[in-house]
């Protein structure tokens, strides 16, 4: 069989940069092209649409790719293996480039055998391309193999004498390869009956974990913004060349690039969707762009950067995520651009092509996403689909406003990421967004119940020092009251000096004197009077003793009792398999009087269960320590982790303070409190974040607060308390009391928390455990002190 060009050129093709997965994808593309033609015809296809990839078992092994397609004739096979030839239509197929077969096979190994057969053929026919044996006569050896079943059909590619590095990668990275291919072909797996098997395992589509079509947020209390937006915009049909793929002017008879007269009218259409992921991620967010069902770009983030057409080269300003950028983002999407040309490696589109630029304009518009930046540059408001999502979901605050699950105080990003992993594993409990939605609703309910006493005391009818002292947790004698650390649920009233859930109180009387309440009835009542507690809903255990799946639930009414009807802070209810429900009574005195951590008591209960089940020799305390380290790593007093929490909270406070300055027109006044050193640090921070602003312009609005040193926020609150207290930014009352000493006390409490948080955010180095514990408590207390968002 004649092949062109020479083996020397084929060897050179093997030097073109293609990752291992790209090489295999090139060969899969050809099979899927064949499948697509069959599927579109509507005819039944015996054997199904299946591609199988057999990975090498060693460096001396071979790679085998088999499909159940139609097979090829001898002439078709000869053209298919000839470098530079393509029988594919440039606009309908995945296999866009004629040299794709040659590049991929030459990059993987030195010998390739291609065998193909059609239904009814008596044998397999093929060719062997050996790069070490083919000379300048361009002839490759014809081969045949007997065929057992005449109804058999398809193509088999066997690549041997693999390059050692490629063979090692393929041998060790089967799971990674399946994951990449599951992303690249996910749309096909979900919308066509195609199967891909790699290393004996079926490749599953990597689906987006997004909010449902019925979810939305309310922007400015008037505009409803959905979490899922469909896009389908047809452009004017164009004239395209069937040989080289280039688009032409509509009045041409021949291609201006290659001279071909195979010009056809083609549809040009931008369609797909944008949406919001159910969790934040540092890397896995962005927009997927597809061509003919295959993803060319995955998690692409370039549309989140605005490029000023009037600016200098490189004048690019990232716009999302900017607030809390270290947390990542959650805007995602899938956009189909079948009419836009791609590079020969199929890892990018031709960004200079006008069809790409028009698609970008449809998806993200021409103006900046940031409204203030757009206004400053005299652009009209950006109303594109991406700008709409950006407007509604740019922030990550917990609750209904931004559709972010929380625990009553803060977002639970670690938990939602873990839930996202369960979604990807196919766990049916995480298939829909109901668990995420429940966590949003539970957060709002916990916030409502957990409004602390300061907010309740700050009423016009009680503007005196005694009210402030009571609100801040002091009794009439000036000493702290019994409640040291407020629990997540502080709304359930105490009927006397001692909680009804104190361990010394008597058990509640049965609901009916005629019949005692059964255990199942009590559990049912607890289920109905509780909400999910996401922070402790997870897998608990250790490899040495096994694991249990725990659904933690916080009681909202009444108290818990054990089998003997004694009050208990934690109650376990075992379910089928290794699952159990853990009820938590956070109004129990162990939490309210002694400030115990709910996790500690839950771990103690679980450790008893696992210790008995595993019959381990570990001591009880040793087992508790091991389970905490394994199952609750985020609770460790890690300086970097706590610093990140501090920075997250400060970012929220910065935005609120800046908005309040803009509302009251006091930005210029606040700006004058900056010292020369703080002004220099602010300018440096703004430049580092791409905010090039003249010093003379600083203070025109509150935006400078987003870049000031963290400790300046403490100084500013102390200097301008009337701008930020009294439920403006912080709940603490200030103007609402007549006593100067009460004002100082209220301000000191808020400033003290803020100082701890700002210090940790500024000096993120190692600290003593007690210092870190104090900072973590200040983070929680300061978050509780934030006013309800307007």
Model description:
35% of the residues lie in helices and 19% in strands. The chain has 25 helices and 23 strands. α1 packs across α4 (100-108).
Question: How are the secondary structure elements laid out?
Answer:
Elements (H helix, E strand, L loop, with lengths): L6 H7 L6 H22 L7 E6 L8 E5 L6 H7 L19 H9 E9 L5 E8 L10 E6 L7 E9 L1 H9 L1 H11 L1 H6 L2 E5 L2 E2 L13 E4 L3 E4 L1 E14 L5 E2 L14 E19 L4 E6 L2 E7 L4 E3 L8 E3 L10 E8 L17 H11 L6 H6 L8 H9 L19 H13 L8 H16 L3 H5 L7 H7 L47 H10 L1 E3 L5 E5 L3 E10 L14 E5 L4 E6 L4 H4 L5 H17 L5 H12 L7 H26 L2 H5 L4 H13 L21 H10 L1 H4 L15 H23 L6 H17 L5
Parallel strand pairs: 1-7, 14-18, 21-23
Antiparallel strand pairs: 1-2, 2-6, 3-4, 3-6, 4-5, 7-8, 9-10, 11-12, 11-13, 13-18, 14-15, 16-17, 19-21, 20-21, 22-23
Helix pairs in contact: 1-4, 2-4, 14-24, 17-18, 19-24, 19-25, 22-24, 24-25
Task: Looking at this protein, list some descriptive labels.
globular
